[in-house]
Design goal:
By secondary structure, the chain is of the alpha/beta class. The chain contains eleven helices and eight strands.
């Protein structure tokens, strides 16, 4: 009998930071990709509200609902044997009060079976982080460019420049003090991200924040070359989109040409 892989737990994240082992995170929105990434050794799978613009066709992350995200998170959790599964709480499900955040997070944990939730913001959401942590719900923070605040921030703009760097550091420390198990840093100047990483005891996970963070995260479609466009900070580690397109073209050609299905695909008795 094959021994199941050891599940990545919250304490493993801090151990990785202490030993200088880089952590890996990718988004996932369904069971097949979750299984593939889990088998590849990815430490954390993020069921991001990025499913709104990457999977559901919206212009940004704001429209996706908790009701839409729970089934996706459930599928990812079922597909991951090793990875720690983190799910975003979408816009409008946690900002109003700690109680609202608690109700949303409990639904995500109970109905989807994820291991942690992620929420955006610094000191303004520390009461939410504290209540969730005290309730047994691990929380990942998110600073820098926070997509749910895109309209306030004036679009997809780098955060933490100049005087704003000190505020970002203060927010990171506040999240840690409230109980956050890790902090995502998105579109932050590399020197600022390095400073935040040095002052925190919990891991930082960078996306467009340089190489000095304790780990990295990418939207899997950007990582795999599935889209027509990807941000500057993303590297395409494969061309899955091109391969899938060619497979579909070959299927169409063989069906219309009468060569599929062939004898080897046919039941004769």
């Amino acid at each position: 009998m094959t021994t199941p892989p050891r599940r990545v737990r919250v304490h493993h994240l801090r151990e990785a930071k202490e030993h200088g082992r880089r952590l890996t995170m990718l988004t996932a929105y369904d069971l097949p990709t979750a299984r593939i990434f889990d088998d590849a050794g990815v430490d954390m799978l993020l069921v991001g509200d990025s499913m709104a613009d990457n999977m559901l066709g919206h212009e940004n992350t704001l429209p996706v609902t908790l009701e839409e995200m729970i089934p996706a998170a459930r599928a990812v959790a079922r597909g991951a044997r090793r990875a720690l599964v983190v799910a975003d709480l979408p816009f409008g499900t946690y900002e109003a009060s700690p109680e609202q955040a608690h109700a949303s997070a409990v639904r995500m944990m109970k109905e989807a079976g994820v291991h942690a939730v992620k929420i955006e913001g610094g000191r303004r959401i520390t009461d939410q982080v504290r209540l969730l942590t005290q309730s047994g719900i691990p929380v990942v923070g998110h600073l820098g460019f926070t997509p749910q605040s895109e309209n306030v921030l004036g679009g997809k703009r780098i955060q933490g420049r100049g005087d704003a760097a000190e505020q970002l550091k203060s927010d990171a420390l506040a999240l840690q003090e409230a109980g956050a198990i890790a902090v995502v840093l998105e579109m932050v100047p590399a020197p600022v991200a390095r400073d935040v990483t040095e002052i925190l005891h919990v891991p930082t996970i960078g996306i467009g924040a340089g190489a000095d963070c304790d780990g990295q995260v990418l939207v899997w479609l950007d990582m795999a070359g599935m889209g027509e466009w990807s941000p500057r900070f993303a590297k395409q580690f494969g061309q899955v989109g091109a391969a899938l397109s060619q497979a579909a073209k070959d299927y169409v050609a063989e069906v219309t040409g009468g060569t599929f299905p062939g004898p080897e695909h046919t039941y004769t008795s």
